[in-house]
Write a structure and sequence with these properties.
Length: about 450
């Protein structure tokens, strides 16, 4: 029997052992040590969660390489980051898996701070080379629109990346002059493939939206480095109330061609004072966490002419009575305003009026009453009460005088209720007891209560 060459045997053993060790190292790196979910499920097949996690990982790698200022804006994922959800999931998790970025939806949403990123075509090319399909959605830039210029150039509003049936939505957030972030609505043109993404499931795009600038923190989710808003709950609350209405510049321009605006020095000074007073009111009420909206003539000015009505001589805002705070008068006084009058009470027809130089701030409190809401009015000399009835409405964001403010989303219904179908015709002579279309008499305050309910300063 021929003798076995020990050197050959030893060499074969070393080679086979090395191959086996290299295979083990490859397997460990590829499957065991991989952060996030296991690449293979127990059945040996890729699951929907596996595909979504890999898609997000690949996308974030590209974004990091090209310096995209992204943060996680997916409402489902951010909801899972609440403290209660975290504690609950910690109790349920028994093995590494995709806990937060895999939400059971085929879409993951990110927001991009557009002012911090220079549009880079190379990023889109690299994404395509990685296998992503891209749908780029553009729209007009409202920051360039004005009464003098109605056509803005187009800007990117949304990117949709698709890979393995998973969709990444990137919504562009642009800085606006009112010191807030804005994103545009997602509008599909006739040539767009409606099957590219589950558009009804997208977090962003049904409407335009506005947000405060969030403070971001870098964290690790499912093994991936991701930026998220520091105050997740606040961001989610903003998202639920983010709908934004753009000023109707085209209609305003047509109105001003028929009824030119007052450009006298007095009118210019009045608009300056109104801007200052409105900004002060917004800061004061924000400190109290009291939401308000533009009402009466101030709302009409925004809706009709994208400005204030120079002959109105006051600023009108509305507040739901449920948001009343007992320290609201003190807060406005501390801000430098004087109380001009206080009519009614919290339970009925409350109205406050403050004075700043020669411009008045009227604060009307609104009451729910079935299918309608109403605010009250009081005639000081007679004690007569009046009620102004409006259809129910929701609140949207808008911009007036470089300030992000709320307005009724159903603005046309709101304005028509108050001013009638001829709201687009200026009326300089206005009687608050007789002129409004929605005014009704509402009784008389008992004389014994006048001292408390009719206070004029």
């Amino acid at each position: 029997m021929p003798r076995v060459n020990r050197t050959v045997v030893l060499t074969l053993l070393i080679v086979s052992s090395s191959v086996f060790l290299l295979f083990q190292l490859y397997y460990y790196r590829k499957y065991v040590s991989q952060p996030g979910p296991y690449i293979l499920s127990r059945t040996g097949h890729l699951t929907a969660n596996d595909l979504q996690w890999q898609t997000v990982k690949k996308f974030l790698g590209l974004a990091r390489h090209f310096g995209l200022p992204l943060f996680l804006a997916d409402t489902a994922a951010l909801t899972l980051l609440s403290h209660d959800a975290l504690r609950q999931r910690d109790r349920l998790v028994r093995e590494p898996h995709c806990s937060f970025l895999c939400t059971g939806r085929p879409v993951t949403s990110f927001a991009l701070h557009a002012n911090l990123w220079k549009y880079e075509p190379g990023f889109l090319l690299a994404a395509e080379q990685k296998g992503f399909e891209l749908l780029e959605l553009r729209g007009e830039d409202p920051r360039l629109a004005s009464l003098d210029n109605l056509s803005g150039e187009e800007i990117p509003l949304h990117f949709l990346f698709r890979l393995h049936g998973c969709v990444i939505q990137v919504v562009f957030l642009y800085e606006r002059s009112g010191n807030y972030l804005w994103h545009g609505a997602l509008r599909l043109k006739s040539n767009i493939d409606r099957s590219f993404a589950p558009f009804k499931l997208l977090d962003y795009g049904r409407y335009s939206g506005s947000y405060d600038r969030p403070e971001l923190v870098l964290t690790v989710l499912d093994g991936l480095d991701v930026r998220i808003p520091r105050n997740v709950s606040h961001f989610l609350s903003e998202h639920r109330q983010a709908r934004f209405l753009e000023c109707r510049y085209r209609d305003a321009r047509n109105f001003l061609q028929l009824y030119p605006d007052d450009s006298s020095p007095e009118a210019v000074e009045f608009r300056r004072k109104v801007k200052s007073l409105l900004h002060l009111a917004a800061r004061t009420l924000a400190q109290l966490d009291v939401p308000f909206w533009l009402s009466s003539g101030t709302c009409l000015g925004w809706f009709r002419q994208c400005s204030v009505i120079s002959y109105s001589r006051d600023v009108d805002i509305g507040i739901f009575v449920e948001d009343f705070r007992s320290d609201i008068v003190a807060a406005f006084r501390n801000a430098g305003l004087s109380l001009k009058h206080k009519f009614g009470k919290v339970g009925d027809s409350l109205e406050l009026s403050f004075q700043s130089d020669d411009v008045k701030l009227d604060v009307f409190f609104f009451y729910d009453d079935g299918d309608v809401v109403w605010n009250g009015g009081t005639q000081a000399k007679s004690g007569k009460k009046f009620k102004y009835i409006f259809p129910r409405f929701s609140l949207c964001w808008a911009e007036l005088l470089e300030l992000k403010v709320r307005v009724p989303c159903e603005t046309l219904d709101y304005v028509t209720a108050n001013y009638g179908s001829t709201w687009n015709v200026p009326v300089r002579s206005w009687d608050w007891k007789l002129s409004p279309s929605n005014v009704q008499e509402n009784g008389v305050w008992p004389p014994s209560e006048w001292a408390e309910l009719i206070q004029v300063y």
